[in-house]
Amino acid sequence: MNTTVSLTELAAMELASALASNNGRSAVTVCGGRDAQLRQTVMALRAGEGLSEHSSPGEATLQVLTGSITLRTSDQSWHGKVGDLMPIPAEIHAVDALEDCAFLLTVVKAQ
Question: What is the number of alpha carbons within 13 Å of residue 16 lying toward its C-beta?
């Protein structure tokens, strides 16, 4: 069954959860899951928090829904603001919240 999801509402809910949590982050899977080939997750981070260096299980993009972030690798970084869609590099990368933010992470697992 297809259902419409409001990314605006999910971003607000996840950001409220992140702000209230001890670790300053929150996430909910919107589409797919661990066993699916396509997975979309709304993630929220409190300003100053981040996702430490990690690799991606496949092709991925990040769409900034609220706030702003920095996506970085060991030798490059990109600033993302509301509305930006950013391809995530295949190399090890990290995300830093420049301000309270929420983003849609889309991953297609490598086969």
Answer: 5
> What are the beta bridge partners of residue 40?
31, 106
Q: At 20, give phi and psi (nearest 5°).
A: -90, -15
Cβ count within 10 A of residue 38: 12
Could you count the other beta carbons within 10 Å of the beta carbon of residue 2?
A: 4
Q: Token digits for 49?
A: 């928090």
- The SS3 assignment for 8 reads helix
**35 token code pair:** 């066993």
Phi and psi (nearest 5°) for 2?
A: -90, 135
pTM of the entire structure?
0.92
Question: In this predicted model, what pLDDT tens digit does every residue of 10-32 receive, in sequence order?
Answer: 999 999 999 999 999 999 999 98
